[in-house]
Amino acid sequence: KFFLFHKEGVSADQARGDLVYCIGQAGPILSMRDRIPSAGGLLGGLLNARMAEIDRFRMRNAAMRKCMGMMGYSRYPVAEDKWKIVVDKGDIVLNDDGLVDIEVVERMVAFASGPKPEGEKLPL
User: Fold this and answer.
1) Fewer beta carbons within 10 Å, N or C terminal of the chain?
2) How far apart are CA 76 and CA 123, in angstroms?
3) Residue 117's closest CA among 93, 66, 67, 83?
């Protein structure tokens, strides 16, 4: 559930460019729940909105895995407490306000271009 990307020998500038590109690809993803109006009044609308949020989160993560994998990055597991420090609030694409957080991107750049993480790679 908690992972970050790393590529052996990549520069910080290249990692930043790759991350920004992939975030740009994953950011505007909408789920089918976003496109279909919900029935059920206020409660149905609230439930649909929460389910759409979960769908978007999963779809953005999948898009990032595919995009960063195509760029040659590996995915490594990260402990939840470390992941929360790197990502802060939100996910690896957008923060809770639906925006790209530059500080989060820079922390992901440091991980991606830093020393090889311990542990086994996760499948992309």
Assistant:
1) N
2) 9
3) 83
Burial level of 57, CB count in 10 A (0-12/13-18/19+)?
A: middle
Task: Render pLDDT for 9-58 as a digit per residue (tens, 0 to 9).
Answer: 999 999 999 999 999 998 887 777 767 776 677 777 777 777 777 888 88
Residue 96 Cα distances to 18, 49, 72, 100, 124, angstroms: 22, 14, 28, 10, 25
The single-letter code of the amino acid at 65 is R
Please name the residue that has the structure tokens 């029935």: 39
- Strands (E) in 1-124, as ranges, are 3-6, 74-77
Single-letter residue type at 4: L
Measured between alpha carbons, how far is 34 from 30 in angstroms, rounded to an integer?
A: 6
* Contact (Cβ atoms closer than 8 angstroms) between residue 105 and residue 19: yes
Q: Count of CB atoms within 10 A of residue 115's CB?
A: 8
pTM above 0.70, yes or no: yes
